[in-house]
Amino acid sequence: MESRRAIEWSEAAWLNPPEAVLAEGSNLLVTARKGSDFWRTTSYGFVHDDGHALLTDFPPESALEVGFVVAFDELYDQAGLLVRVDEETWVKAGIEFTDGVPHLGSVVTHGRSDWSLAPVADWAGREVTIRVSRSGDALTMRARCEDEPWQLFRVAPLDPAATAAAGPFTCAPTRDGLTVRFTSFVVTTPDEALHLD
């Protein structure tokens, strides 16, 4: 049976505090610093570990969901859910703006980062929820736009013994002034199977 609990923004702690944070009702408006990002080495040759993430404990056999509005219009504007073990072991799952449209994607990092993307042009300007389930040795990543069905977009390994934290993140690698409206932060039970139907 599924259990769900809203996480108060104040229950979590910032990794790399952002430029500004404003509570507006149940929403949290987060303004990223220019140049902020999470990335390690691959293709670009640089390491960035200064993106903004509001993290809480993420134990095995649990799931977290983060909702936000996709109001992105500059290269690499991004937001979603970050899972972090340490500076060399982390996953970011969310929406990133590239090639003129928002893309659903993830970066999985075990020493070096990878990157996977798929365009979701019709999600622009709408509320998206990212869900990451931690079960066994895997992170299962799903997303949905508003009340549309969940889409599975990535399964990645994570050591079951690892101590991890997770929560909403945002980065603005190329510009000033990116403010993301986060609408929800929820802990729930993990998905029971890869295929929900």
TrEMBL record:
<dbReference type="InterPro" id="IPR015987">
    <property type="entry name" value="UCP022704"/>
</dbReference>
<dbReference type="Pfam" id="PF07081">
    <property type="entry name" value="DUF1349"/>
</dbReference>
<dbReference type="InterPro" id="IPR009784">
    <property type="entry name" value="DUF1349"/>
</dbReference>
<protein>
    <recommendedName>
        <fullName>DUF1349 domain-containing protein</fullName>
    </recommendedName>
</protein>
<dbReference type="InterPro" id="IPR013320">
    <property type="entry name" value="ConA-like_dom_sf"/>
</dbReference>
